[in-house]
Design brief:
heterodimer; A: about 400 residues; mainly alpha; 2 domains; B: about 375 residues; disordered N terminus
């Protein structure tokens, strides 16, 4: 490593500040987007009053949260209570150090980038458990332990899928992975990986239907129950940054990151445009953001649609469905690489695995419906019987 | 170094055998918990995520309604009944009015009976729609609430047009109704029905057969038909166990014997069956409203009593009706005065809630919320 001079340190600080600002802006946009999307899904308008289309609503929220009294419960363990949100938010930010926004737009590209990201993603759990425990609240403790159980179980499929993507790209460097997808995104080669990663990612950031650790109707916010004001807003910030990170990773690992469709063709006519050096990178970033926001919209859509799983169902789903599926994805990727089969065989194998497991899960979940059909049949029979009896009575009456 | 200030271990539950192990944690749920449906409180002895024992506490909303009734004139009591099951106000008013009518031997104008049936059935739909919303929230889905509330809002707008109030209507009178209906009442309902059918179908579609919802509710909070009867279950909770008992059929009151409707029953007596029964009941209620509208005679809806002070003859009477939550009964004792001597309400929610200790045993913490939601209690009625 070259000696670090003042110059590098200065630019590092500037870069970190820029990243912080960019992420804070993104969080504001996500809050607005989520409220609007959920509103539209729920026959509402969402925020409309603050600013055009309610665009300033998240700003108003942030101001309100920061001005609010920051209550620290008397019986809490003050040090732990104070440090827990810091751990959560720092780990959320640290992930972003190595996530590239385009070819050149990355704070510090690491060759083991994915390894680094998965390592820091787990660190946030520590903060949640500490927050739950330190707030001296039983709901907090329950929520904290739930989050530990949930996030650790879902970390395994995430890592396994990341490994299979790494195998495909022969690298854990996110820029290399994206470069490898210039022709065909991995979503088409390894759809299984996309599905597993997306679902496990939802669980990892505690989004519906896996939001059990801060379930409003059960543990009343879980680890966050005693937090208010700025401390709470820090958790909130971390949650949205994590959601954005998962969406960005989905886009980077499976949707081809910033590579455009027909990229080479596009590049060939791009010089015809005004020859500005930053135009290409800018288009890349925009294209990448479009993909990320599309994934995030799906996350919000799921939030507006599904109820929440129970803890045992959640764990069963992780260990009985997600973990085996992720191991299967490693095995088929290995087979594909070892025998050097054409890419479509991998697609076929992963689709077959998805179909089989999907069918089994569906069958299991919809098992009660068969009994419901029984009830319906019985009811129809009763109804017919009653109707016949009434008609008979009417006939007698008319006679 | 701070001593650990958190001691969450709890003693053994109250009804445990003498040398039982202490339980991991005592969890107080309510009265300010968001999903205890008002101010119900449960103390849970939990072992990790499993519930070992439950101690329910009621009475946070006790207003002494029954005692208050003794101090009010017969007409004034109706306002107190509005506040029992505060999401099914018309149904409450109906039971009370029927009790007094039975005592006085009054006949109600035919048109008033039909209007009562229409309003009660619409109120049943509104109440069940509220249930759909809350069970969705309890299970963790927030969208069904909004869908269900749209339909409920439409019904309440109609109620407001009819009675002048969205919730505490005070519209039924002993022997009739408070005042004539708005001129376009029938047209209002005719406009409302197709919209409402759509709303009901939508709130059915969004939740009932959702895979996650099914897995959360099916086989949770199971109760056998015998146990349910022993606990005094009525209404959708009882019918969910497969018992076909509906006061509207078993002992038809008002003009319910003139309508053709079905009593949906479940199979297993679990949370999902109770949910399904409620959904089906909404369709049946819609059909009852349609039939009532078709059969509705003309004439006045006014009570023959006018606005006079009434003094029913001395005697005792018990009236009952099928409320959205089950059988609501009113036991009325009169000594010939202008106020009831004693009035006792049989609240369906209270009887259904009595099984909570039994239902929650050995379930998950997350289930406790869903089970309570599927019983669909209204604390105004439980505590009175």
């Amino acid at each position: 490593m070259p000696p670090v001079g003042w110059y590098q340190i200065f630019w590092m600080v500037v870069g970190l500040l820029a990243m912080f600002t960019a992420l804070a802006t993104v969080v504001l946009s996500l809050v607005w987007l989520e409220r609007k999307t959920l509103g539209r899904l729920q026959l509402r308008l969402g925020p409309t009053r603050t600013g055009p289309m309610g665009l300033l609503q998240p700003v108003a929220d942030a101001v309100k949260l920061i001005l609010k009294e920051d209550i620290i419960p008397d019986s809490s363990d003050k040090a732990i209570f104070w440090v827990a949100p810091v751990i959560v938010v720092v780990s959320a930010f640290m992930i972003w150090v190595t996530i590239p926004g385009s070819e050149g737009l990355v704070l510090r590209n690491l060759e083991l980038g994915l390894f680094y990201i998965t390592a820091f993603a787990v660190l946030g759990i520590l903060g949640l458990v500490l927050a739950g425990w330190g707030s001296a609240n039983k709901y907090g403790v329950l929520g904290g332990l739930r989050s530990a159980a949930q996030l650790i179980s879902y970390e395994i499929p995430v890592i396994m899928v990341v490994v299979s993507v790494g195998m495909l790209a022969q690298s854990l460097d996110l820029r290399v992975i994206v470069a490898n997808q210039a022709q065909i995104p991995y979503a088409l080669i390894l759809p299984l990986g996309l599905v597993v990663f997306f679902i496990a990612g939802l669980a990892e950031v505690g989004r519906t239907p896996f939001d059990i650790y801060h379930a409003e109707s059960e543990v009343v916010g879980g680890p966050f129950v005693e937090y208010s004001g700025a401390h709470w807003s820090v958790f909130f910030l971390a949650e949205y940054i994590n959601t954005f990170a998962i969406a960005a990773l989905v886009a980077l690992l499976f949707l081809g990151g910033w590579s455009w469709p027909w990229q080479s063709a596009a590049l060939s006519w791009l010089p015809a445009l005004p020859p500005v050096a930053w135009l290409g990178p800018l288009l890349s970033v925009i294209w990448f953001l479009i993909k990320v926001y599309a994934v995030i919209l799906v996350v919000f859509w799921i939030r507006g649609t599904f109820p929440r799983l129970r803890i045992d169902q959640l764990m069963a789903f992780a260990w009985k469905v997600m973990v085996p599926l992720s191991f299967y994805s490693i095995v088929i990727t290995a087979l594909y690489l070892f025998y050097d089969w054409p890419a479509w065989t991998l697609t076929l194998m992963s689709l077959a695995g998805l179909a089989v497991v999907g069918y089994l899960v569906y069958r299991r979940m919809m098992a009660p419906v068969r009994r419901v059909a029984e009830v319906k049949a019985r009811q129809a029979a009763q109804l017919a019987e009653r109707r016949a009896a009434r008609e008979a009575a009417a006939r007698q009456g008319s006679r | 170094m701070v001593e650990s200030q958190i001691d969450i271990t709890a003693g053994p539950p109250p009804d445990a055998p003498p040398n039982a192990e202490p339980v991991e944690m005592l969890l107080n749920m309510g009265p300010q918990h968001p999903s205890t449906h008002g101010v119900f409180r449960m103390v849970l002895w939990v072992d990790g995520e499993k519930i070992v024992a439950v101690e329910p506490h009621i009475g946070y909303l006790h207003r002494g309604s029954e005692k208050l009734c003794e101090g009010e004139q017969y007409h004034q009591v109706i306002t107190l009944f509005d506040r029992l099951d505060y999401v099914a106000n018309f149904n409450n008013e109906l039971v009370y009015c029927q009790a007094v009518e039975k005592l006085m031997g009054l006949t109600v104008p035919e048109r008033a009976e039909y209007v009562r049936v229409i309003l009660c059935e619409l109120n049943r739909i509104a109440s069940h729609l509220l249930y759909v919303g809350t069970i969705g929230l309890d299970a963790g889905a927030m969208t069904p609430t909004m869908f269900a509330f749209r339909g409920r809002e439409r019904i309440q707008a109609l109620f407001e047009a009819v009675s002048g109030a969205r919730m505490m209507h005070n519209y039924f009178r002993i022997g009739g109704l408070k005042e004539e209906l708005p001129d376009n009442f029938e047209q209002l309902i005719r406009d409302l029905l197709p919209l409402l059918r759509e709303d009901v179908a939508e709130s059915d579609k969004i939740l009932t057969f959702n895979e996650i919802f099914l897995s959360r509710l099916k086989d949770v909070g199971r109760i056998s038909a015998e146990d349910a009867i022993d606990f005094g279950f009525t209404g959708p909770c009882l019918r969910g166990c497969g018992v076909e008992y509906d006061v509207r059929k078993a002992q038809p009151y008002s003009v319910y014997d003139r309508f053709d409707f079905d009593v949906p029953v479940g199979l297993d007596g679990d949370c999902w069956d109770r949910h399904w029964v409620r959904i089906q009941e909404m369709y049946e209620s819609l059909s009852i409203v349609e039939q009532a509208l078709a059969q509705m005679p003309g004439g006045s809806v006014a009570s023959s009593l006018g606005r006079r002070l009434i003094r029913p003859p001395a005697g005792e009477v018990y009236a009952r009706a099928e409320n959205p939550r089950g059988e609501m009964g009113v036991h009325l004792v009169s000594k010939g005065a202008d106020r009831p001597y004693r009035l006792k309400v049989r609240p369906p929610s209270f009887c259904n809630l009595s099984a909570i200790k039994y239902l929650l045993k050995d379930s998950w913490i997350a289930d406790s919320v869903v089970i309570l939601g599927s019983l669909d209690i209204v604390l105004g009625e439980v505590d009175r």
